[in-house]
Amino acid sequence: MRIIINSISRTFDFKSRSRAKELFIYILFLIIQFGIILYIEKIKKDWIITDIWWVLYYIRNVLIFVLFFSFLPLISLLMRRLHDINLSGLYIFVPIIIVSPIYFFIDYLNKKNDSESYYDINKMEYVDKTITNINSTFMIIIYIIILIFLCLKHSDGDNKYGKWIKPD
């Protein structure tokens, strides 16, 4: 809990360093929040018959609000983590610059090929000319590359982004 509060309190600190442990615990905190929201959404259909439906509704809305505002600390934490491995925090935008044109190009191809998709009466099957799953595969590959970068060993000693953080 101390690590999460520390991460949130350092939201506007884009210049120092953070350890990988701090980043992964914060991401786990976000995943748990998202899981609770999904669970509440799953049991939403049973809310009408319970007397506490309004409490669950309120908790869900508060968690969505907190989750929404938890992304700015995540961005600053990612930048500090990149500083810890002696990279500029601006590398956080590299996946966006790489992924966006490729995503839109594949989307353009899908729209073009969607008109070429058809149902073959002789074979009794739908022939899909779109390449939708390439986008998903490509995004997974990009996220794995980002994860590898974030798991790199920290730079020993001081660097240009701050003093060395001693391990716990």
Portion of residues within helices: 55-70%
Radius of gyration, whole Å: 22 Å
Amino- and carboxy-terminal Cα gap? 15 Å
Unreliable segments of 5+ consecutive residues:
none
The helix/strand class is: mainly alpha
Question: How many strands, which pairing sense, and closed or not: the largest β-sheet?
Answer: 2 strands, antiparallel
**How many separate structural domains?**
1
Would you mind describing this structure in some detail?
- The chain is mainly alpha-helical.
- It has one domain (2-150).
- It contains six helices and two strands, in the order αααααββα.
- Strands 1-2 form a two-stranded antiparallel ribbon.
- A hairpin with a 4-residue loop joins strand 1 and strand 2 (125-127).
- The two termini are 15 Å apart.
Task: Give the key terms.
mainly alpha; two-stranded antiparallel ribbon; 168 residues; 6 helices
Question: Can you give me a brief rundown of this structure?
Answer:
This protein is mainly alpha-helical and 168 residues long. The protein has helices spanning 2-9, 20-42, 53-69, 71-84, 94-114, 132-150, and strands at 118-120, 125-127.
Describe the protein's topology.
Blueprint: H1 2-9, H2 20-42, H3 53-69, H4 71-84, H5 94-114, E1 118-120, E2 125-127, H6 132-150
Helix pairs in contact: 2-3, 2-4, 5-6
